[in-house]
Amino acid sequence: MPPYGNESESVGRRGELITAGIVLLVALSTSFLSEPNQQRISGALQVTVLRPFIATQQRLEESRIGAADADSLMALVDSLSSTLSTQSVLLDENRTLRALLDIGERAGPRYLPATVLRPGTPGSESMFIVDVGADDGIVQGSPVIGPSGLVGVIREVRPRNSVGMDWSHPEFRASAMLADGTVYGLVENRAGAFREPDRLLLNGVPFNEQVAPGSLVVTSGLGGVFPRGIPIGHIDVLAGQEGSWLKTFWLTPRVHPGAATHVLVLQGDVGDDVTGLWGVDSTDASGAPPSREGR
Amino acid sequence: MTPAGRVRIWLLGGVLVVLHFVLHVGLSYGRGAPDLLTLALLLMAREISLGRAAAVGLLFGLFEDALSVLAFGANSVAMTVVAIGGAATRDLFVGDSRLFLLSYVFVGKWTRDFLHWVAVGEGLRQPFVEQVVIEGGLSSVYAALVGLVVAEVWGLGREA
C-alpha cells in the first residue's frame, strides 16, 4: 500500500470538491433568480415541507382567537380571578377584534379580515404572512390595515396566503400628509439602534410649513399604493432640517407591528379616500394619539 | 464511521430541523429559541462527505429563505459556505472534546450570521456591531451551549 493514500481516494476527494463547488454556485445563483422564480421556490417549500409548521402556528393563532370569545371571557372573569393577567391579554385581543370589526363594517366587503402570522426565522423580521391570498382577490401591493391605522403592505401573493411587510421594514415608504391636507411628505422607517423600537420619520416637509406636535399623519394616496386617509402616526418632534429647504419629523406610530394579530387587507385596486373609516375622533389633527393597537 | 453512526447523525439532523421549525415557526418563539438548523448542519457537516454537507447546507438555507422576504438566497449562501467549512474542519482539526465542540459551534454559528449579514445587502441589514457582534455573538453562545447539551444527550463523539 502506498504510504500517503491512494489514487482512488484522491479522485474521490476531487469529486467531493467539485460537487461542493457546484452546490455553492447554485446557492450563489439563488440570489440572482428573478423574483417570480424566487417566489415559486419559496411558495413550493411553504406548501410542502414547511406547511405543517405554518399550519401549527395558524392553528395556535385560531385557538387563541377562539379563546378570546366574549362569553368564555365572562366565564373566566367569574371563575378564574387568579388568572387576571392572562385575561387581560384576551380582553385586549377581544378589543382589537371588535375595533377591527367596526372598521370592517364601515369599510365594506373589499377589506378582508385576516390573521397575521410571523415566521420568526432569521431574515424574516418585519415580514408577516396573512391567511388570505390570490383566491380571495388579494394582489401585490394591497394595503394592510389594523384598527388603529396602517400596518404594512402585501409583497407576495400566493393562492391561499400572502406575505407582507410592515412599516418597520427598511424598504417601507408611504406617501403621507397631515390629516387636514396642509402638509405633504414621505414617511419612512428608521431602525432603532440596538433593538430599540423602530421609528417613523416624516420626510420632505417644506421648511416654511408649520407642523404642530400631535398632528395626525395619514396616507396621502399619492403614488397609488395606499388609499388616502389611513392613519400612520402622530407628529412627535422635529428630527432635523436640510438647509433651509426641508424639515423632517419623528412620528409616534399608531400601530405597533409586533402587536398586530388581526388585520384587514384591501382586495383589488387601491380605492378612494378612506378617512371616514377611522371616524372623526381618531383623525382629529389636534388630538392625542389614541390607544395603541394591541397594547 | 459505522453505518449505525451514520444513521444516528442523519436522525439527529432530522430531529433538530423539525424542532427548529416547531419552535421558530410553529410556536413563534423567534430569538428565544436557539438556531437548531445551524447546529444540525454543523454537527452533520463533521460526519458526512463534503458534497453532501454542501447540499444539506443549501437545502437548509432554502428552507429559511422560503420564510424571508426581499433577501432570498442570503441564507442559502451562508448555510452552504458554513457546511463546506464545517466539513473541511475534519481535515484541519481532529477531536471530539467538549471544548472543541463548543468553539466549533460558536465559530460556525457566528460565521453563518456574519455571512448572512453580508449576503443580505446594505439596504436591509442592521449595523454590524449590533447584528453581528452583539446579537450574533449571543446567539452563537446560545447555540454552542445547546450543542453541548445535544452532544451529551445524543452521545456524540462517544461511539467513535
Textual characterization of the structure:
The complex is a heterodimer of chains A (about 300) and B (about 160). With about 300 residues, chain A is of the alpha+beta class. Chain A folds into 2 domains: about 35 residues; about 180 residues, Rod shape-determining protein MreC, domain 2 (Thrombin, subunit H), CATH 2.40.10. Chain A has 6 helices and 12 strands. In chain A, the strands form 2 sheets. Chain A has a 6-stranded antiparallel barrel. The longest helix of chain A has 24 residues. Chain B is mainly alpha-helical. Chain B has one domain: Arp2/3 complex 21 kDa subunit ARPC3 (Orthogonal Bundle). Chain B has 6 helices and no strands. Classes of the chains: A alpha+beta (about 300), B mainly alpha (about 160). The interface between A and B is large, with 51 and 53 residues.
